Amino acid sequence: MTTVIIDYNSGNLRSAEKSFQLMSEELNVGQVKVSNKPEDVVNADRVVLPGVGAFADCKHELSSIMGLYEAIEAHVKTGKPFMGICVGMQMMATCGHEHGYHEGFNWIHGDVKIMEPNDKNLKIPHMGWNNLNILNSHPVFDNINENDHVYFVHSYHFEVENNNNLLASVDYGGKVTAAVAHENIIGTQFHPEKSQSVGLQIIKNFLQWNP
Description:
Layout: E1 2-6, H1 14-27, E2 31-35, H2 38-43, E3 46-49, H3 55-64, H4 68-77, E4 82-85, H5 87-90, E5 95-96, E6 102-103, E7 110-114, E8 126-131, E9 133-134, E10 149-154, E11 156-160, E12 166-171, E13 175-182, E14 185-188, H6 196-208
Parallel strand pairs: 1-2, 1-3, 3-4, 4-14, 5-7
Antiparallel strand pairs: 5-6, 7-11, 8-10, 9-12, 12-13, 13-14
Helix pairs in contact: 1-6
């Protein structure tokens, strides 16, 4: 089995590669490969799309590599597992409103909008640890519990249209999307690779998930 982590100049991938490699070795389920080659994405058994920064910048970088955007769509259409992390999750939405209007993959209907906490003392970006509220069950969240801590760094969040797609939220001056899923795709706004044992459990579950 090959898991491909997509490299499209969206930030430092070392921690993600290390965490996925660690769990892959523990489970003895094949190799983890960092790549920006469309053929690697199409042939992968599992694909991970990370993302750091603005929605618009990530969309531009992804689209600038010939065939990569289409390869991601082709992978998802096969029904094989796909995970988006942070902005990688946001790009699964219909659109993002950071620095203008930008279309996403539209796999999960909804918009990515600026966070507006009810408590004006709360700072944006939302940065640091927060407690998960589990809203729907999912195999990738097996052994993940209510109030488990995970690590966030973001200013925008995914407002989903259908609550059945919402796996988990956190409270940050209101309800903030933490994880979404639909069929063979799953996304986390938080960084599992930076969320210690909870994040490693999610990665481990993803590597064993057969949607």
